[in-house]
Write a structure and sequence with these properties.
With about 250 residues, the chain is mainly α. Helix content is about 70%, strand content about 0%. The chain is elongated.
Length: about 250
Amino acid sequence: MGQCGITSSKTVLVFLNLIFWAAAGILCYVGAYVFITYDDYDHFFEDVYTLIPAVVIIAVGALLFIIGLIGCCATIRESRCGLATFVFILLLVFVTEVVVVVLGYIYRAKVEDEVNRSIRTVYNEYNGTNTDAPSRAIDYVQRQLHCCGIHDYSDWRFTRWYNESRNNSVPLSCCKPNVNNCTGSMLRPGDLYPEGCEALVVKKLKEIMMYVICAALTFAAIQMLGMLCACVVLCRRSRDPAYELLVTGGTYA
């Protein structure tokens, strides 16, 4: 019964190390996705510390690849030192992922305040040219999120661009894609996206932060199982003189 348990622990541990390699790629992808999205929405919030969870999760992903390599070698070679190092590093990464989850929740709660504070300023800086970064950001967001204005299309009346253009229209990025010959005229509100961008930007950024939180929680749970299996192997190797090697099928003296 005991040998069955130890063999199962070693087998699960080898399998988990393979999962760690896959997890490393997934975590790096999630972190990179946050960075790319931040680049698209960075004009709508000023606090760059919002990127801290993404930076940490990329670092954790890179470390998980190394952990998987150490874990596989230590498990197959039955190295007590290697397994102890493996458990220690896993514990550090586990604590780091808990920190990521906490920071994710903190910055997720701050997203709405950040967007509310900056979005009106960004809209006032709009000048309708592709060379202007705030203008590109607003046009991108309105097309991607299918929105217009801050709360609705009428908010454009209070912008500098509207007052200077004096044509009673909104940017063409407010036009619905299925409407032909849309000029952005406020006299034809049916041609325009009815929903404002503020709530949708907040929703999008909160969703992204939730991806980070869910990824960190999922792999933290997997790491807990990895630490448990490694501890079982370490304890049985220390106490059991008839310890069974995973590779040779023999016993450890």
